[in-house]
Design goal:
The structure is a homotrimer. Chain A is α/β, with parallel strands linked by helices and about 300 residues long. Chain A has 2 domains: about 5-135 and about 290-305, Aspartate/ornithine carbamoyltransferase (Rossmann fold, 3-Layer(aba) Sandwich); about 140-285, 3-Layer(aba) Sandwich (Rossmann fold), CATH 3.40.50.1370. Chain A is built from 11 helices and 10 strands. At the A-B interface, helix 2 and helix 11 of A face strand 3 and helix 3 of B. Chains A, B, C: Catalyzes the condensation of carbamoyl phosphate and aspartate to form carbamoyl aspartate and inorganic phosphate, the committed step in the de novo pyrimidine nucleotide biosynthesis pathway.
Chain lengths: ~300, ~300, ~300
Amino acid sequence: MTDLRQLTDIDVLDRAGALALLDRADALHGHATARAPALDRLAGRTVVNLFFENSTRTRTSFSLAARRLGAEVIDFNAHTSSTAKGESLVDTWRTLDAMGCHAYVIRHGSDDAVAELAKVAGPEVAIVNAGSGASAHPTQALLDAMTIRHHKGDWSGLRVLIVGDIRHSRVARSNIKLLRLLGVGELRTAAPPSLRAADLSDPDIVHFDALGPALEGCDVVMTLRLQKERMQGANIPDGEHYFRQWGLTPERLALAKPDAIVMHPGPMNRGTEIDGAVADGPQSVILEQVGNGVAIRMAVLETVLGAA
Amino acid sequence: MTDLRQLTDIDVLDRAGALALLDRADALHGHATARAPALDRLAGRTVVNLFFENSTRTRTSFSLAARRLGAEVIDFNAHTSSTAKGESLVDTWRTLDAMGCHAYVIRHGSDDAVAELAKVAGPEVAIVNAGSGASAHPTQALLDAMTIRHHKGDWSGLRVLIVGDIRHSRVARSNIKLLRLLGVGELRTAAPPSLRAADLSDPDIVHFDALGPALEGCDVVMTLRLQKERMQGANIPDGEHYFRQWGLTPERLALAKPDAIVMHPGPMNRGTEIDGAVADGPQSVILEQVGNGVAIRMAVLETVLGAA
Amino acid sequence: MTDLRQLTDIDVLDRAGALALLDRADALHGHATARAPALDRLAGRTVVNLFFENSTRTRTSFSLAARRLGAEVIDFNAHTSSTAKGESLVDTWRTLDAMGCHAYVIRHGSDDAVAELAKVAGPEVAIVNAGSGASAHPTQALLDAMTIRHHKGDWSGLRVLIVGDIRHSRVARSNIKLLRLLGVGELRTAAPPSLRAADLSDPDIVHFDALGPALEGCDVVMTLRLQKERMQGANIPDGEHYFRQWGLTPERLALAKPDAIVMHPGPMNRGTEIDGAVADGPQSVILEQVGNGVAIRMAVLETVLGAA
């Protein structure tokens, strides 16, 4: 994997490459969560957070990952920047490159912006997709896989369910790609009709129109955030209504395997897509996901900067 | 004091604990104001500024304090963060904790948010209140006490006046608690009726309805910022009008003791609560307060992180 | 130049001083663009970015310059700060000074704010103008001169053209001052009548009302950004219309000397003031300007902090 320079989506990885990133993140976990000292493998390198959508959480995770490898971090707030003055993403990147920056962590509202920049910038430029449109969020998928692997051994025996707003979810799309690549046994999705994704109706994904049957026999339950601004368009009157049909409650979770783990990419809407008792319960690995996120981002930054 | 982990308000301190923080801040003063080199006592620790109200001034003071002890600083802008997406303060803290952050400096508009988080997070989690609602601003009170002690020796002989918008002032409330704890001789407040605080009408606080008589014989005059947005509600037509009755002018200041010191928590409204000639005059210790603020915050961070 | 503490505009430099900064920036270029390791000449110093206008690009350039000299950087966002609460620039500076900050990089919408602060603060306080109103942007002029000198030797033989919105341009004003100081052979400006600057109609500046004739025989073509918000006031219907008359196209550029260089302070409006083919063409030195900008800002910070 030492030749990976651009993590635009899961597609750029082969199975060995994905597993190598998971292995490396495992090794870095203590440093990522500050139980072990920071490293200096990226000393002298400058990592730019180039965020066109607000996300303090993901930005902070990348910042900590970069700093715990010894890199400098520049937060280039794209809302108040020259991009807001009409400059293209490519010109913004060229400017930062001319200033001696080394890696670009990009979040963008458009599906294709990150991949397009990667093409123009050329294959030697280190680029990490930190979430683009509804299409890709590869580091989220990797941290999810790292978390699953820690709790469940063999991929081929696993039944994984993704629940909620599949339609608008880059988390779902990248997870599905990675879980297939890793060879997961059975992939399930569950969503109300208006939140189902037409592009994810392949025969190898088993789709459910109700949460109860979908949960039966699952090893992993991945709950997606319901974005409030999308509820109206989806004809869902409010969060309470959604919770009654789709909220992950302790009663519903009991339909899954007894040792099933519960995941959520955060930030959670307690009482909308997930019951607080489940979020804080013994099957929840939600906070482990957060710590694994820093470790995965360290592994990815190290790799795209050729320091792995 | 090495067991203090949460400075939610002055109440958590006993007299010895408060004096220990003042002593430690005195010892750190050169490092705080960059006349002496930065220290590395907090190397490897990450301090998060979690500000739900804008305050570049206080945030910068905490940032410098943390960095001059060798800590990393994360600015978690709560306005544009996951909290804005509906996440609770507790969930935001849990996320940052899972990322390996070590101390939380919190400013919040609500009176109770910081104390409530401290309760949920548990007594081992390092939390510093950087200003909450109208109730508490303990590091401001400590830096004020540090400044007073530097100029005036014995607490029991001192007459201290707090002037202005007492009603909405967390600075006044924390100062009153700390000055009582330290055993100040006489505590006075002075405010127009609409800005007087019902909760601070204890018999041991002498209240005045006019500034002149309140100033007589005072050793310390603490002027509060008049927040413009509150002037209308308080039936104060404008800043000029307020200044005529309540502005600290050289003529009025002459009613206090000749060696009285003048304090202000900043930012000042010159010509509203204070005359520029007083703010810049020989009795003003306002800029000393600012330098002492960094020293106090170093002492507090060191202590709550168990590095004192 | 070791006694320069305040770079408020080019006026404060003499010719030797300007050349010393260019020489020093040349020497620092590898460190500025991260091809050589960071330095520690400013270790223990704190540089404040005090920006009253948004400019992520210039702020990032100064941040990288300061950090690559080992300084700490504080971003004091003046939009959300105590200044927004009515505090004066002088009081904000006094506060930061009391916190032990060492140099102030200031961008301000007013022509005079930076110079006025420099006067009040006193000649020992390190202040750098990062752009003030329409009057001054001295580090831009220095990086432009550094770029020109790299490509063209002798100043006296050069013909330099500045094209576009001269009237509102601090870049134009500082460049004209510096190019005169360096003894440039011929200075030309070209602009539509509404964007011509009355204060720059000296006999030694040759003004043109059309781009074609202005370009003839030029060694350097400096294109200015057309600020969209000014197009209406200037009776310019839209960017396309402006481009037809004033856009720097390959055809027009062919009227200049064959080895003429093309400059732009960024961010560019491709298709408005400059053709993408020119911006990316072999005569463009626009990205060199960006790298030189970090080097110039390192040289300036080193100098105003007495570390040169």
